[in-house]
Fold this protein.
Amino acid sequence: MSSLSALVLSAALVVPPVPAHADPGHSSSARVEENEESAISDTVLQVGADETSRNLSWMSETPGEGEVRWSKTSELEGSALPEDAHSAPTTDSGLSTDLGRHYNHANMTGLEPGTEYAYQVGSEEDGFSPVARFDTGTSDGDSEFLVFGDPQVGAGGGRPDDATGWDRTLTSALEAAQDPRFFYSLGDQVNSAGDQGQYEQYLAPEATTTVPQATTIGNHDVTSKSYEQHFNRPNVSHDHGEGGAITSGGDYWFIDSGVLFININSNDHDTEEHAEFIDDVVSEHGDEARWKVLGFHHSIYSTATHNSDPDVQQLREAIPPVAARNDIDLVVSGHDHIFNRTFLMDAGGQPVKGSDAGLEQEKEEGQTMYLTLTSSSGSKFYDYVPGLDWEAKSVHNDIPAFTRVRVSDESLRATTYEVPAGDGAQGTSASADSEEIDDVEITRAGDKDPDPDADIGSE
């Protein structure tokens, strides 16, 4: 991978993986009870390639023979999965970067829409995780997802308590949303790429086992295989944005609720490689989507100090024409720990003539809006840089925030909320009321229904 420096390549240690258990016919013969003494940790529920699948990751004490088991909650026998529960073996497993545990990946498939499921992961030797539940929701119609900028657990060094701050923002977002399809973390999940304790804190909220998540790889995640081990992403490319022997990477994509999500590893500076990936995915799957969203870590249109970094400037030259020719509707990024919304932008990276900062944004084909998400934990914030041509709305209150994106056939509506600390120090309470700081609705030109009161002429 040409863009990663020698410094990056020396920042983590990994050993060759233990071969994954891959017997497709394997299934536990007896009903698996919840095992509070199981040696399973860091269970993560994630998006699958589409609405019919969900991906799982977890850590175990012993290698191989792991599996995920699942059933509809209506089929539970008390609190336990039935004997005939579905099961699937690990698709990948190996020795963790901490050299003490083993990572495991597996997938649930054939899921039905509008159905609540229960699942657990583990093995006969290590025991199984507690039974957790999730709802697949509707696969069409109106839906929503949540977006978070840099949790970066560990960056605050305990002051502020960013692990509690992350839990607090996530909890507040889930209270504000209405059955979100998943939540999307835009990179720097942890501060130190190989720190397993920081991953445990990032994954500590119960929602990481009950609400699917998608992740972006940030500059604080890339320098270890821990990111790839903890997150089982769908449709990962081995030719675009890939990692190395001791680094994580890989561009990937998925479809959910009629939205095509494309995610690139912006730590890889080979912009032609990313452009090829985006072009190929849209060519093959764009017709399946009502909207297209692109995500990567390094914001190209922030209003904070990273906007002038050479790698960000390189991306700012490369991304707009790719986004335009593929009619990407929304781009979401983090990295600069400040909230910013651009005007509608054109293929040349310029604000569309006549574009304003209002709620209603009607886009022509090839026009794109860019959102920069601030810290979701309160770990750290950056200084505001005024006077940038692309700034439609910027908020720099040094308060954690999240964005709620509501999806319909007619629009994408992105509403951003701050989660103030209240009376105590930042991150001291488990939950807090959120306060709206921005709202924008993207529609397509020509998609509006005709006005029934309009004069249609005389016969």
